[in-house]
Amino acid sequence: MNLKSYFSVAALCLALASCNSGKQPATLTAGIDLANLDTTALPGTDFYEYACGGWMKNNPLTDEYSQYGSFTILAENNRKQIQGLIEELAATQHEAGSIAQKVGDLYKIAMDSVKLNKEGVAPIQTELDQIAALKDKKDVYPLLAEMYKKGIAAYLALYVGADEMNSSMNAVQMAQYGLSMGDRDYYLLDDEATVKIREAFKEHVKKMYQLAGFDAATVEQGMKTVMDVETRLAKAFRSRVELRDPHANYNKMAMADIKKQYASFDWDAYLKGLDLNNVSEIIIGQPASLEASVKIIDTLPLDQQKLYLQWKLIDAAASYLNDAMKEQNFDFYSRTMSGAQEMQPRWKTAVGVVSSTLGEAVGQMYVEKYFPAAAKERMVTLVKNLQTALGERIQALEWMSDSTKVKAMEKLATFHVKIGYPDKWKDYSALEIKDDSYWANIERANLWGHAEMVAKAGKPVDKDEWLMTPQTVNAYYNPTTNEICFPAAILQPPFFDMNADDAFNYGAIGVVIGHEMTHGFDDQGRQFDKDGNLKDWWTEEDAKKFEERANVMVAFFDSIEVAPGVHANGKMTLGENIADHGGLQVSFQAFKNATAGAPLEVKDGFTPEQRFFLAYAGVWANNIRPEAVLQMTKIDVHSLGEWRVNGALPHIGAWYDAFGITDKDPMFIPVEKRVSIW
Length: 678
Hints:
Distance between the termini: 36 Å
Strand content: 5-15%
Radius of gyration: 25 Å
CATH superfamily of the largest domain: Collagenase (Catalytic Domain)
Structural class: alpha+beta
CATH topology of the largest domain: Collagenase (Catalytic Domain)
Number of domains: 2
Low-confidence stretches: 1-25
């Protein structure tokens, strides 16, 4: 659990990828693998099938995956590279306390299934007993804090991050968090699919209590307690759509007022337990959730309180214990909820844990071996070209007034761009990795992360800190620092190819760059100024025009049926859909600017403009299980891959021109009904 990263980025963005090394050839390739296409499909009928049908046919889902796409292939190749680096360290002895020792030993511990199975639930037994020994309600508060520091979040999430009204300074903040199933809808909706998952969750909770050694009566009571507590929490949670309103999520209160309003909660014991001293104010994200948590903690009988806290411990630790616990965890959270049929091999999960726990230590090794300087240089050029194109588009907007344009251009000009890896690496010297238990090491890592986070309270924001590791195949925009970040792992084939021409690279990684830039101007990002403060820089009339145009996109995606009787959520996915739309528009303009002096040739039977859109669509090639479609539609702020293509392109004029799409084609949308924002 990395709560720090979870709450630090207001607009966490897209799962994408891309760079190659080596000397650039004299003749650049088209970059398009023709085998990935299905040219029996018609571009104006189903462009996703046309561009990705071959890929989907040639890459069927295996039991390991609930969805498998172009992005997955990159992530898997990346994981194999990291595995090689880690296993090299694990094969030899290293000086105690060195990074090599920590990386190698943590991997060996994660891989030692014999030891894990022999231990069973012993690694959590002391903590289970500690919870069972609670004698008084007042003892709950320091225990909640202690558990939280170790990565076991019950009821509340407290974190330190940029104050959105004073973005240069870090502040203590709270947010709704901690539902075992991840989303309130699983507890509240009564459609057939949701009820099925909820009933399976009840059985899962009982099985986990059983595996932890509880008797039958306690198991039954535990399940009822978990459902009671989390359903009450869910009723107070804001929806994912409601969470998109940054002003509603900003409720700064003085500590004295908090103690008065939530009087039954022992704030002194809780904050002391979290190593937070002299807290004068807290930004409360969702007051109703806090109120519900405080009431439950205050009124829940102590025996039930113990059971619930024991559940949160079991649930947090399950993946780091014996095979029986791990398999049951997989059975519910992966097989039932998303449709995966087979657990990943142990080495994959071990690599993932090491790569996240010692993230920048692994990242430093990764970039030294796999990230070429030429890739970063070309990215810098691409980013500058995209910035220029976005500026041109802002200046050309007919619907925006000059005064708002000035502010928009100021924000664009002050983008903080991060490419590849941080200039300064994290110091892991205080994190101890030793040969006791897997779970004990995870707890120490969480304690280390917590200490790192709370040390920032009341101090200036470090704008050079990275919120993703270099080996993360992703990218992000952070509104409070007005930064766009592209880790090294996203800069490699097949999404950014040093050997491919600009049509391909602007269509793939170029749109990724444009996507991140547009996040600064989506329905959330636009509410932050150039300095990262939640501050209105729009005229009232311009804001109204933006909302009107955004609502066109909301209505369009609301109309998409992703499964029988299930529609996409246009409001929840609005920010990402705006970013896709803006990314396409901006990158295409940058592409035309870059090639204006020397237009590209037709290659493999496709014009440069066609290759641009084929490259974009290829990013989203994906096979997905029906269970995952329902899950992602409920919880993911991104549209499904199919609709990031078929939902986005019909609003792009250049796409119509490239493929000769007319009003006779099913995907055609009249100009007056298309989205037109950035």
